[in-house]
Sequence to fold (52 residues):
Amino acid sequence: MLIPWVRFGPEAIRADAKLARSTPTAAGIVFRAGDQTFRCWVWGNAVTVDEA
Fold:
């Protein structure tokens, strides 16, 4: 599981996400917030991998 920082307007949150694709510097992620599914790119250094 990935735990990236994502920003909704002025607020940054940590989200439980799945890795959809990646490059050497960025990660394409998929995550849910409420009843919506979001897909976006985040910088690689914004992502922590949870080993659990």
Remarks:
- The chain has a mean pLDDT of 86.
